[in-house]
Amino acid sequence: MKSGPDDPSAVREAPLAPPAYGSQPIRSWAAHERPRERLYSHGPAALSDAELLAVLLGSGSAGRDAVSTGRALLARAGSLGRLLAEAKELPPISGFGPVKRARLIVTLELARRALGEGLVDLPRIDSPRDSAQYLRARMVHLRHEVFACLFLDTRHRVLAYEELFRGTIDGASVYPREVVRACLRHHASAVILRFYVGLARAFHLFI
Predict the structure, then answer these.
(1) Is the Cα torsion angle 28, 33, 38, 40 positive or negative in sign?
(2) I need a labelling partner for 18 at 20 to 30 A (CA). Which of 25, 99, 163, 168 fits?
């Protein structure tokens, strides 16, 4: 089955660079082939995952341009989501040192904060879409199973977010009495329960 555009595990491959560019630095490429110039002229949506990574990384290494480095990182991680979530643990790869590793880590954190930013000042959660966006921003980087709660007041305003139970890649144990205690501790009138599994699968309940 082919991965669709909404599949979070899908990785869009960069068009293969002309053979003459293989190990040359990007600055020696024709202007219309360079990721940064294409970004300015066509917008970020026109770039592949590897090309976007190339712009972020800034440079490659001896014998490997930045786009090739991006492709290698995607291949090593298996998907763009896993690459960002596992940047700290990713094995060393040529052209991907501590500085570039740090860039990926802070990029994920900036994206997470930006996703949650729009809901910080909302007086309440008005729809399932609001709750999904808020919780996705808080949990998208997690690699293990998590049971989390979003506590609301009588007007569905957010009182607190709390990860009550953490598991491994295989599962997480959930104790209802601890959920009740947390609701009382936060004086919550409503609670949204979200069970997050891995990097891309989750479900949540509104109570």
Answers:
(1) positive
(2) 99
